[in-house]
Amino acid sequence: MAMTRLAILDELLPAQLRERPDELSPVEVVWSGTDPEKLLRDAERTRPTLLALDLELLGGSERGPAAVRRLVEQTGAELAIVLYSFAKRDVLRDVAQPGVRTVRAPISLSSLRTQMTSVIVRHMLSGAEDGSALRPVEEARAPRPTPMDGGRNAPPLAERVVRRYSREQLGRLREIQSSVDCECPNHLSELLLGLTSFEDYSAVCENKSAADAAVHRMLYDSTVQARAIMEEALTKLMVHEKIVL
């Protein structure tokens, strides 16, 4: 049986897999990291048949579509799943091509596996011999490129409300099993991931006038406030359920 090999260019999915390491079986994760150039350098050895790609790590709206095409062509992957939080419709249209699927993030591991089903089944039915055993390659996490570093609507550093939870922690919470029959930690982590993504998105929205800038700054400030409130709620919930990250 041909091996279904997955390369992950994302921060959240590796954290989710640490909570549920067998959730993608029989898919083998042969590479994970945040550097697309390293993914390409390692591709000859890891030979991924599937790619899970964070659009922001590929340059977002400006460079993302071309970067996706390059990765698909140079790795020879059969399917690329491009994950995005917020993106313009024309960008998603440019990303779409044969063998590429766009999916709204965050995504659960079970949903990701469903997205890959066609390739998994094809390999199971192919009857081909597996390649040599491949060990997962864990890349040291590179700093996530974020619009907050130079956002047009973002406030000065001194004014910014520091995020209480990293994307890796929220990714783990996305999959964690509560000690009681409750999925509130999973849902809250998903909500916070959406808020942080919109916080970044609103910080770099295009402004054609001072009024545009004021509206986007209002959206940014409101999102920061909402995020801080929900972080506090998540903290109290974690204490109640004795969840330690």
Q: How would you sum up this structure, described in words?
A:
With 245 residues, the chain is of the alpha/beta class. It has 2 domains: 5-138, Rossmann fold (3-Layer(aba) Sandwich), CATH 3.40.50.2300; 147-241. It has helices at residues 12-19, 36-46, 60-75, 89-95, 109-115, 117-126, 167-175, 184-203, 210-241; strands at residues 5-9, 28-33, 50-54, 79-84, 100-104, 137-138. The chain has a 6-stranded parallel sheet with strand order 5-4-3-1-2-6, with helices on one face.
Task: Give a short overview.
With about 240 residues, this protein is of the alpha/beta class. It has 9 helices and 6 strands, in the order E-H-E-H-E-H-E-H-E-H-H-E-H-H-H.
Helices and strands in order:
Blueprint: E1 5-9, H1 12-19, E2 28-33, H2 36-46, E3 50-54, H3 60-75, E4 79-84, H4 89-95, E5 100-104, H5 109-115, H6 117-126, E6 137-138, H7 167-175, H8 184-203, H9 210-241
Parallel strand pairs: 1-2, 1-3, 2-6, 3-4, 4-5
Largest sheet: 6 strands, parallel
Distance between the termini: 38 Å
How many structural domains are formed by the residues? Answer: 2
If strands are numbered along the chain, what order do they take across the biggest sheet? 5-4-3-1-2-6
Regions with little confidence, pLDDT below 50 for 5+ residues: 128-150
Mean pLDDT over the residues? 83
Helical residues, percent: 40-55%
CATH topology of the largest domain: Rossmann fold
The CATH C-level class name of the largest domain: Alpha Beta
